[in-house]
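Justification of computing resources. Each target in the renewal requires a structure prediction run like the one illustrated here; the chain below, 344 residues long, is used simply to show the kind of job we budget for.
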Amino acid sequence: MIYSQSTYNRIIALLLVIAGLVVIVLLALGITEYRQSEAKMRRDTLLLLEQAISEEVRLKMEDVYVSVRMVSDPSVIKEKVKKQTIITQDTTFTKETEVSGDMDKELLKSSQSYLLHLNQLQPDTLQQRFDAKLDENGIKTRSIILVRHEHNAKMSGDTVGYRINYRTPIIQGGVFGEITYQGLLSYSSLAVFRLMPKNVIIVLLILEVLILGVVYYLYVGKRKIRPDKIVKKGRYYYIGETVLDTRKMELGVGKETIKLPKQQFDILLMFLGSDDYALDKSELKERFWSKSTRAKESMMSAINKLRNALKEVDCTFNITTKKWSDFYTLEYIKENINSGVIDH
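Resulting structure tokens:
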């Protein structure tokens, strides 16, 4: 397609508006997806921390004897609170505690109490297991584990120099509810971005790149159209900002076009195909009026008609010659065509 300067400007402006809308949609979608992915990541990390605690406890309790007894106490009003006793090989704990009735869960809680009393449940090893689970699920974060047992608190690392982005809700453990765990996570925005569903975002990014590519292509094409330049684009010539369609022999832009007679079209095409857009008068006469006795008059008449056609479509180029010159030249006319046109 061939366009005028004003058409180029309108198309480029429209495409830039569309590109701006795509950017707005991208930002809105990106922020929404980011927040949803971050919320999901936080839910997942809490579950992963619970799994890490359970695996760590069960691993360390292999081949260790622990029994749990829950004794009903009529004096206790709350149904879920019973007297519970943990018996190990060398230790016995007894206390009223809230129980769930789930034996596996109570055994896990009892095991945690046992391990912490023996100082065998360390935040460092728990963090390693937790980090492995995070990595398996594609969650790239730095984690720190905080474990509180009665009045003691242990942490698997130092938070100095790290911004803590998220603290998991407190996870309670132990027979008597005295053990609490908390995971502290430090992560960059890129960690959440990796987890985001990006199919729609990628499509929009490709669309944005394509739109900007078309804008750049049109801008480069527009820059080539200058009032003082002649540019060929396919079957079209830009003579300044005026277009010559070599297939239809039409001169002008848009609705302001005229159809050139065959002879005027051929002469104009000779100008456009020559060096410096200049034609030798004798060669011109030989080409079109070699057998005419009025060759000079016929040539001047044809040139004047072509000049008028160029003026009719407000072309910034026209045909000039100088006194006693042997050449016609198609050149940029700054003001008045008559200033440089003298035919002899």
